Structures are given as structure tokens and as C-alpha cells.
Amino acid sequence: MFLKAFREKSNKKYLNKLLSQRNVNVGNNKIKSLGVILNFDEIEDFNAFNVLASRLKIHANNIKVIAYTTNLKSHGNSWDACFNTKDFGWNGDIKNVELQGFLNEPFDALISYYTKEHLELKLLTALSKSQFKIGILQSDARLNDIIIKTEINEIDVFSDEVVKYLTVLNKI
Fold this sequence. Notes:
Elements: H1 2-20, E1 34-39, H2 47-55, E2 63-68, H3 72-75, E3 82-83, H4 97-104, E4 109-113, H5 119-127, E5 133-136, E6 146-148, H6 155-168
């Protein structure tokens, strides 16, 4: 318990360091690949992101979704790419090979679809090598390039807004 608090503090410090060093480099590149980070405890509709990818003209092979949950046992094997707090070490160290592979992939766009304040979700968003980050309104605006203020259950509104803004930015 005591070490858990120290680990969380070291991860918070590492997150602040990452966000302060972040360079926003939004180019005119079209979006061809999409990564999605979501909180499984808040939303379980993974198919909505496949629909969004098709609206963005992204091939099904170029979308990857990972989900965070506080309790892996309660969700069982309902989703393959599920992770939790135990997959993180000190100073933002990732212990899960599949999760590290997701972070190393240079997606053209990353969607961070969560509203609850979990340090692990923020770390994933910050550690991602994605070129363009899109998210729901959160306490730290440094995480995403585009922030869309919607409720977590309004995925259709979120999708419409993403398509609208990416069209204006000439990304699709």
C-alpha cells in the first residue's frame, strides 16, 4: 500500500514531465490509421469506433482499440486488449508487451475516450507516438490536440464532431 502511493507519485511526476515536453506537430497528413484508448468501466461499445473509422475512411486493419479496467476479473475475456493498473511500474514503465506495442505504433490519430481521472489512461495518451490526439474534455488540456466536450454516452455526437473537425482540418 505504501509503495503503491510512491509508484503513483512517480508516475504523476513522469506524466507532468512528458506533457511539459510535448511538441504539438499537426501537419496536413491524411489520417490512415487510428488508435483508441478507452475506459471499459465507462463504455463497452467497441463497435462504435469501427463505425467512426469507416466514416473517416480508415480500413478496418488500421484501427486498434485498447481498454482499461479497474477489475479484469469482472470483465473476464470479453475483450482481448484489456489492461489495468498492474501493467504499470515506476516512472511510467509499461510491463505489458501488447500495451507497449500499441504505444510504439505511430498512429495518424489517437482517440482518448474516457472521462474518469485514471493516471494510467493519461499516461497512455501521453506516451503514445500518435501524431494527432483527440479526446473528451478532461482536467488536463495538455493531453489532446482537439478536445470535444460531450458526455461519455454520446458517442454519436462525438463521432459527428470528430468528422466535422477533421474535415475542416483537411485530415480526411
